[in-house]
Amino acid sequence: MGRKPHGVPVTLYEKVNSGQKDPFGVPIYTEIPVTVENVIIGLPTTQEVIDTLNLTGKRVVYQLGIPKGDTHVWTDRKVSFFGEDFHTIAEPVQGIEDLIPLSWNKKVMVERYD
């Protein structure tokens, strides 16, 4: 019998409004780490790397498969896995849960975070 695919825990840093504003009146946010279980981590295709670089100027290093039912915001967020920090690029791509086999229905691209 084959192995069932499974993901790993990833730390997602949610942005929470601190209730304060900077000198320009822009809200200040704090990052709260949240562990998201069962995230699958893969490498992007060469075409995805080229397309994202051409559209955003950012270099994709991994793509994350987000588990079905996840309700976290993945746009413009810091994430940590493999002992390193990354930043999500662009909007997540999501499919219809019932039409996709396995446990993941959303894809998020990440770049290295310095």
Largest sheet: 6 strands, antiparallel, barrel
Task: Return Rg in Å.
Answer: 16 Å
Q: How are the strands of the biggest sheet laid out side by side?
A: 1-2-3-6-5-4
**Share of residues in helices:** under 10%
Proportion of residues in β-strands: over 45%
Number of helices: 1
Mean pLDDT metric:
91
End-to-end separation in angstroms reads 42 Å
Q: What structural class do you assign from the helix and strand content? A: mainly beta
Total strands: the figure is 6
Shape: globular
Question: Helix and strand succession?
Answer: EEHEEEE
Poorly predicted runs: none
Question: In brief, what are we looking at here?
Answer:
The chain has 1 helix and 6 strands, in the order E-E-H-E-E-E-E. It is mainly beta. The relative contact order is 0.24.
